Structure formats: structure tokens, C-alpha cells
Fold each of these.
Amino acid sequence: MSDKDVEDADDILFAHPPRVVRRWVCDCGVDYPCPDVLFARLVKATAEAGE
């Protein structure tokens, strides 16, 4: 491993710091909107469009 490799690694680590990612999680434990929520939204949108 050369000094250049170590220098490049330092540059990569500097350019790619960790970050906090927020995501919505449904009460059932999967990412929001879960398939049940998507289905419920579809049903409601269809019912409202039919009125």
C-alpha cells in the first residue's frame, strides 16, 4: 500500500461522512406507508372519486 493510497483513502472518508437519516416507520414495523396503508388510501381515493 502506497502513501498515495492512504491519502486517497483519507480523501474518500472526508468526502463521505456518515449522516443521520430519518425515515417514517409504520406502527406495524415496516417503512411508512406500509402495504396496508397504501391499500387503505387506494380504497378511500376510489370511494371519494365515485361520490
Amino acid sequence: MILGQRRRKVIGLIARSGGAAIAVTLAGAFVNWVGVAGTGAVAVAISRADTGVLAGVLAGISAVVGCEGLVRLFQGGIGRGLVLGIGSFVGLGFAAIIFFEVVKGIEASGQTSR
């Protein structure tokens, strides 16, 4: 695989992951947890369980959870706000790990042995 093809695959991965993350985050902002779960499930199903989309859905869910944690902190619920914030960081970390593993796989698929 040549450099341009790998670059297009990575750009496509970024677009799919980002689109899924934005869709899930918007569903959380406009609807509720049922909308987040539904949007995430539909995104994963449409993409036939693409790992990049799964990372994007996980990042979107982490964003919604983190925002909920911030709201709880501002309302005075320090314990619940901190738990939600830590959970959000953990979820975002897993999403980043998944995403970069997929990118590493794309980059490794194009290397030839000499």
C-alpha cells in the first residue's frame, strides 16, 4: 500500500470516528441517555462494528458523562461529580487507545519487508 492510500485510510478513519463522536455527543445534549445509547448502537451497527466508529462512540459517551460530572460538581454533588469525571477520563483513555491501535494497524499494513 502506498503512502497516499494509507493517508486516505487514516483520514477516513478520523472522519468516521469524529462523526460518531459528534453524533453521540449531540444526542446526549439534545435527548437523554436513551438517545446516547441508541445513537451509539445505530452507529456501530451501520458501520458493521468498525473499530474506529466504536472508538468514536466511546469518546462521545465519555464526553456526555464528563459534562454530566461537571454539572454535578457545579450543583454541589462533589462525590458523584468526581466519579463521573474519573469515569469520563477512563473512557476517553480507552477510546484513544483503540483509535491509535487502529491507526497503527493501518500504518503497519503498508510496510513491505526487504
Amino acid sequence: MRKRIRAAIEADLSDAPLDAVGRATLRDFAALRQEPEAVEVQFSGGVMGQGWAVTRPNGPYLVVYLPQAGCFSLCVEGPFGPLDIGVHGNAIGCFGSV
């Protein structure tokens, strides 16, 4: 799973825009990127699911890969762990939504 997640992130990085904002986002993402770590993610209605955190928190936000959906999610740290806030897509796009 970690290999699959790393490959998805590398693909996102190669497709990222290289304008000033894109370069700043990539720099900030690289500073917070971590090896994928298994986490429990809370979804609407209190439903829990498996995810893989790929960044350390950026304030209250972190990017998590959701294997069941095949995409990344911007989550907010809550009292019970990461909470999915409905922002989904590629890793860089989710990270840049903050």
C-alpha cells in the first residue's frame, strides 16, 4: 500500500504547476510530507474508515490517502483523530486547499 501511495504522490508532483504559487505549495508540501502512516478517519455520520496520513499536520489540517476511494482527502484533526471534510482529489490539490 505504501508503495502505491508514494507512486500516486510522485505522479501528482510531476503534474503540479510550476508558477510561483505552485512552487510555494510544493515546497510547503515537501516540508510536511511523511511516510504513509495508517490512521482511522472519521466521516460524516460518525462512520470510521481506514486511511493513510501522508503529511504531518499543517495547523489542524493533514492530507490522508483513502484506499477505499482511491484518492486523497484533506482532513482536520479532531478529538477522535482525522475528520474528512469533503475535499478530495490528488495530494497536492488537497494540500493546496488549505
Amino acid sequence: MWEIAADLAVLVTDGPLRALRARRALRRLRAGKQTRLPCAVRSDRAGWPGEYTNGSLLFTPGQAEAAFGSRAYPYLLFPVGGKLLDPEPEAWHDQDWAAKLYRPAEGDMVHIQVHSSYLPALALGIGDRS
């Protein structure tokens, strides 16, 4: 019985809590404060695995680089100000998770999967100039 109640609690509260966190992240970025976005990242750089790694993107407004951190790998730094593109639809985790391809002005491409409610904050943090 308690397992059902716990599953229902997660089902009912997940959407509103995620939307609240996404709005907070967007407000923090607009205010010029450091912000973390939960996501999964895949990079073609040497030393990084070919599959997506869960972690978070750290954006510091005014900095030239963003950082992805996970528990399994060291920070992956990449420049901001590039283009945020849509990759192939098969790369999407599910309907709620958007897969994006980030192409910085210089450096390797980075594949990012983020919940769709965080897309405005991701575009603002990366500084998509397209």
C-alpha cells in the first residue's frame, strides 16, 4: 500500500517541482547568478565515453566557458556563444527530454539531453547566437 502511495506522490509532484526549478534557474541566469542545470552530456573528446553521462551544467554569467560535471568524470569545459541545434529525433530519451547538439565557435561538439522545461535556461546559459 505504501509503495503505491509513494509512486503516486512522485507522479503528482514531479511535474510542478521540475517546472518550479526550471523557472528558478531561468531567473538566476537572468539575474547574473551562477546556475546549475541537470542534464546528460555526451562528447566526442578523448577520454569521454560514447554514451550520455548524467550530471549538471554549470553556467556562470560573464564567463567564457560552461562546465559539465558528473561523479564519474572530471569537468568538461566548453566555450559558450555557439549554436544550439536539434540532433536526430532517435537521440531523444523520451518526449519530455530534449536532445540538443551544441556547436561552439571553436572546439568539439557536445550532445546535451535536458528536460524540455529547462530548454529556455539552456539557450540563455549557452548564449545561443543563432
